[in-house]
């Protein structure tokens, strides 16, 4: 399968830890990349590779992977982390297709 | 710091052709990166349209392949999207982005590290 599956919505209490997951066969070959998107804004890369953060991304964001599942963890969620989060990889079946998960809406309570 | 900027008409008539350009600044389009178009219908998720390398090699989303053409103009450091036979379902915010590939041991990395701000294209008569 070339699809990536995410839970549509997740909530977390302010200051607590939340994990957002992404499942797909391509994740057995590719590290997932993760994007944060706030309303009216372009997506922003927050995690790529094994567990890399671009410059400017807080260290409360981390990534991990096991089997066909990738996870984005926010440790000590802040109000400004409320956003949509998308995972992404390439299809590993050789057709060069790029795939996104359906997105997870994170609500910080 | 690489910057990308989309430009083009914000309104296209049904059955017409959507045309957008992405200007790249702060870096060369002839770098070892691919360059992509991604779209997002209102209230929905992200959909990859296709990508191009500076050599002109392209890969397209199979679901759009019959209607999409992506081209590159190295002299202007920009790349372009054409989507033909548009319908209301093609109404979306269109983003251009830079792809980066890598390999770490047996694992592959792939991500979009730079994005344009996006441009809304509405298909309507």
Automatic annotation (TrEMBL), chain A:
UniProt-listed InterPro entries: Ig-like_dom, Ig-like_dom_sf, Ig-like_fold, Ig_sub, Ig_V-set, IgV_Light_Chain
Keywords: Immunoglobulin domain
Keyword field contains Ribonucleoprotein: no
Annotated Gene Ontology cellular component terms: extracellular region
Domain called Ig-like: residue spans: 1-99
CDD domains, sorted: IgV_L_lambda (cd04984)
Record-linked SUPFAM superfamilies: Immunoglobulin
Coiled coil segments of this chain: none
Pfam families found in the cross-reference section: V-set (PF07686)
PANTHER family, per the entry: IMMUNOGLOBULIN LIGHT CHAIN
This protein's name: IG c412_light_IGLV3-19_IGLJ2
Lineage: Eukaryota, Metazoa, Chordata, Craniata, Vertebrata
